[in-house]
């Protein structure tokens, strides 16, 4: 529990925003996988701050060092320890946070839970912690690639600017062609303009990320409590600022009839699957188990809590006071959250592939 | 993993729709709690089939028997085993399901995963399995009551008929006054009429359940992967037919600015909490940890897959065929899902109270 | 944790000596296994009380009922719930135990931990609880049989009467030919005579059980904390009255030189293993992982704490008093512990076979 | 499972003998504890190689770096990541091990399990890995110290030289006064002489470590499978080269009568415990739960497998060959294993204190 994710393929993380380093241990990595360090670093670079005009300007190289579990370029099946040093620590920027609780941050709740907190940059609750998730996700992706499974996320909404078509109508290869990571170039430009405007006002904006998993085999998912979508949901909801998760038809299902949304089975022609469905309202999962169709889901993000205008709040002694953040702020977390969503999905799918193997004699 | 829910307070379940019995084991029940059998049975009765005109007509007494862990009316801290016998088993009703896969049911995915399935009434994937969750939830509620924590869910939408006000504007005591379990009598009547119409057409309809947790202490939630809302999300997503989960502002957050949704802290007057917030966009959870405000969330249900009209499908050999369900069908699962939602929430909150205790010396 | 054993193949148990029933849930049972009910019952009969003159005279049919997870004679991969009703409950026999703590029983420690205890026959701490382990073990054996893995335990010492030869020198098929379950007929007779003498004196006696696992594949065991022998050790130490565990050369290793105990590898001739060892001081496990040789270990049991002579003790209020047990007593637990040892070993090996599968893509 | 130890207080480790570093993540460390770095380093120094004439001559500073979870000298309740760099890596010393399997090492079993292995110095199976355990143990000891719980281990046997008295007859403060870590100065000198002789012959020798836990509260231990002694047993058996574990009377119990070993309860005078026992054959644990008396146990170690004489073996292709280790060898692992035994015990006790808290409302 707590700082470990997964059942068989597990990621245990540590680190605070302004400590020595962030890092973790990946356990259950299958043996004999080629460890492509360039790919792993490139995944980290996708979530690195300062990569574009519409993200936070904190400068971090975020160089990952794998400390174990790899021998002569291949995974050995032993745990992979890794660290990423924190370099750009302006701890003094945060002295004004030491004794008060920032609105809608985790300052108050951490203090209530532990009686002590590292106030610098949000400490453990900082989005910086997601670095470790991207390392785990990159390693999981190396395995999934071998199995022909692809995982691609993209920004589908920022504020009121939303993609209006089904995921299948977009070309995921366009996602990385713009700073906001949206496959629709026109909408991407609008989103970037909105984020720039919000940033100029010292404010922040929310949005939605859509994620699609293709090539997933049938039979993944543990009935009852660990249904595949339930674990994907927990994985996504564990990402900072996430407020909602839906898969397949999601909340739209509430207004539908069974006769409208049932996915009819038909014999499959050609491909490896014996059976396919004519529609995919289910989102590739039935009874908590993958059915071989595309798995797709949407993740809702609230706007980042750090804004540059003065806000009322309360200090440790319970006295009313005010707080104004200064320096860096991240107007929209979505562009950098895209690789985090993919990483959590990749680790979940790999974990469930291994879990499925565990029940086969 | 698999058929066990929770970390410290755990529920392990077993059973199929038409097997001998459904049941489970509750572990981690605190010792010395008065076991109110009448209350436990009354909770089971809330999800029992055949309780009203708008639910399935399967007749089951659903009498629960506690087999251990209770001594002279009090919990002993030892595991509580329990069973509910299946009595109304019309297994022959299901012969026509033996060799084919019903659309949008778990028949195909179970068969792909295990190579064998109990086809009678959906076997393990039947909603009947939620009985065990209600027993676990009832026991958790007995503990939470002592701590002044209340958990109340209600039907907030069926099809296009939706409650339009904030949860705080409804009187939860009215929820049990109608068959659909909606605290707005007018809307409840409309919902019941819609469900009756859908039932007459042999069709089914989806909806949304809202759940509110009051009196929750601060400090519940395990940062990083087991955030309180992430575990609530997994718990809800593990309920049959659930397609989405959101808490606090949920998906609406996507369109908001930070300056609109940040919850400002103010000194608290009178009550036990030193600090409170002027708004509760966060839904009572910040950084994955409870902040003492009301926790509220919404759960989206798809329409039940069993409809009484003929549907295309495929048999085990992969040949196209058709399937028509006959006999009982449940036009809308929401009324009976309300106690299940409450049960999963109650078990999660109790589990996290115990988890929190575990970190205090 | 707590009342669940195993990682992938898990057994969760419940029940007290004089409650309604004992039972549990077996999760992770591979699908498609023929469920031989006669075999399962026969395993329970091996640990049943009253089966011979040298065991307790409590009369229990101990009929097991499987409630789920089996369909048309085969396992479905779904959890198997089971119960065994308690029938011969002389609860009044135990009124004199209600307010005092029996020496070397768990009465005091349960009371200290939970503040309440079911005093009847030791409640949860009774050896009767091992019934559930034998059900789980019997199911595991059904799977292991298919894989050509055999697990056989026998009584190798009672008091000072000990088998003096290596396990390989005895014919395990003779184990069930006598009441004490010892493959050496001569020693068995001496052991039975000793137990009868001890019983007549109202006293009890300890002993040692040896267990041998043949046909175990290589590669079982999780390096670091969950080494195969570490989990076997925990499994055995969790059996009532066990005080010690050793495998391979065990405690004798303390006096040896590396040059005496190293197991030299040689090419294997004929059989399926490419490599074998000329000796097996290691007990079939190296670095916590099975090497394909026989796995063997020894388990030390203390004498049962219930004796029929008066003993000093203290009551709940902390006052000195005396206690004399009357009625049934079990002079030597070993004969009935043999199937329990086998069951824990069988569940551990199956769990590790499934765990190993989990790391293979 | 696998590379994580514990339930609430957990240690997850990584690293190989000749990789970049060894390290891990400690989760569940209670918040607000003063982190005494000097003490932590001193514990590491106790297991460091090259500390005396009777251990391996590998030179390693073994400087530990805590990377997170500590703020202004106190634990924050967040995970503590740590690393110890490997500096003295003579990887080329091991080229002759690359393609063959050393007798009684884990080379063959790792290769069988993973199909690949880091052959340098035993890779993951090296005793060097126990560094991480000592870091976790040192942190646990910092907490236990506050609770008045002491854990002390000592070498009680090397080869045939054994302490013949009960643990209570020795002064643990003398343990650190000699290189072999034995509280009996005379026996210590004999043990050192024996180890020196064995070392000169290029051979190795086994032994036994005794461990005593004082001041442990009542109520620690999870009945059924996670009995306190069962978890202590697993913890000890997970240490390299351990072949056996016994607690209280251990294997001697096999020859005893109940009337000889039952621990009679008597009212306690003066101290905080209401009740005490006149004897302690039980070893401080009854029914798997601590009873407030001293907990003591013995751990048997086999001789280290690395000897300097030529041995037969087999290469990866299955051909017979020979192997002679050269360079460093460790004639007796016990002196350096003493802090490892203490560390595993300390982590187990702290974990169970936190587990116990979890069941108290």
Quick one: overall form of chain A?
globular
CATH architecture heading of chain A: 4-Layer Sandwich
Number of contiguous helices of chain A:
7
Strands side by side in the biggest sheet of chain A: 1-2-3-7-4
CATH class of chain A: Alpha Beta
Count structural domains of chain A: 1
Work out the helicity level of chain A: 25-40%
CATH topology of chain A: Chorismate synthase, AroC fold
The CATH superfamily title of chain A? Chorismate synthase AroC
Largest interface: A-B, 107 and 108 residues
Global mean pLDDT of chain A? 94
Judged by helices, strands and strand pairing, the structural class of chain A is alpha+beta
- Strand residue content of chain A: 15-25%
Distance between the termini of chain A: 28 Å
Low-confidence stretches of chain A: none
- Please state the CA-atom Rg of chain A, rounded to the nearest Å: 21 Å
**Quaternary assembly:** homotetramer
Q: Please tally the β strands of chain A and state the result.
A: 19
Sheet bearing the most strands of chain A, described? 5 strands, antiparallel
Binding site for NADP(+) (chains A, B, C, D): 47
Enzyme class (chains A, B, C, D): lyase
Protein name (chains A, B, C, D): Chorismate synthase
InterPro entries (chains A, B, C, D): Chorismate_synth, Chorismate_synth_AroC_sf, Chorismate_synthase_CS
């Amino acid at each position: 529990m707590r700082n470990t994710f997964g059942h068989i393929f597990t990621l245990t993380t540590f680190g605070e925003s302004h400590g020595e380093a962030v890092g973790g241990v990946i356990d259950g990595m299958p043996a004999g996988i080629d460890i492509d360090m360039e790919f792993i670093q490139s995944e980290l670079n996708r979530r690195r701050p300062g990569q574009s005009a519409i993200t936070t300007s904190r400068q971090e190289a975020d160089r990952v060092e794998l400390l174990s579990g790899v021998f002569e370029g291949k995974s050995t099946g032993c745990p992979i320890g890794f660290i990423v040093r924190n370099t750009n620590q302006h701890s003094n920027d945060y002295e004004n946070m030491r004794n008060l609780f920032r609105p809608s941050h985790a300052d108050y709740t951490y203090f209530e839970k532990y009686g002590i907190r590292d106030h610098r940059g949000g400490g453990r609750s900082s989005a910086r912690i997601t670095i470790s998730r991207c390392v785990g996700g990159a390693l999981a992706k190396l395995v999934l690639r071998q199995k022909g499974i692809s995982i691609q996320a993209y920004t589908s909404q920022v504020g009121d600017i939303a993609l209006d078509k089904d995921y299948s109508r977009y070309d995921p290869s366009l996602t990385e062609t713009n700073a906001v990571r949206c496959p629709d170039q026109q909408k991407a430009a609008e989103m970037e303009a909105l984020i720039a405007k919000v940033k100029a006002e010292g404010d922040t904006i929310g949005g939605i990320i859509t994620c699609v998993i293709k090539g997933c085999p049938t039979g993944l998912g543990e009935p009852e409590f660990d249904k595949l979508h339930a674990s994907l949901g927990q994985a996504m909801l564990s990402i900072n600022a996430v407020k909602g998760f839906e898969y397949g038809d999601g909340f739209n299902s509430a207004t539908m009839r069974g006769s409208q949304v049932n996915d009819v089975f038909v014999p499959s022609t050609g491909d490896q699957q014996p059976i396919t469905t004519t529609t995919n309202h289910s989102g590739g999962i039935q009874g908590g188990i993958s059915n071989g169709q595309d798995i797709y889901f949407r993740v809702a993000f609230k706007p980042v809590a750090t804004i540059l205008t003065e806000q009322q709040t309360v200090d440790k002694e319970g006295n009313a006071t005010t707080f104004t953040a200064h320096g860096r702020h991240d107007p929209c977390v979505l562009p950098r959250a895209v690789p985090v969503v993919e990483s959590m999905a990749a680790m979940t799918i790999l974990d469930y592939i291994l879990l499925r193997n565990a029940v086969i004699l």
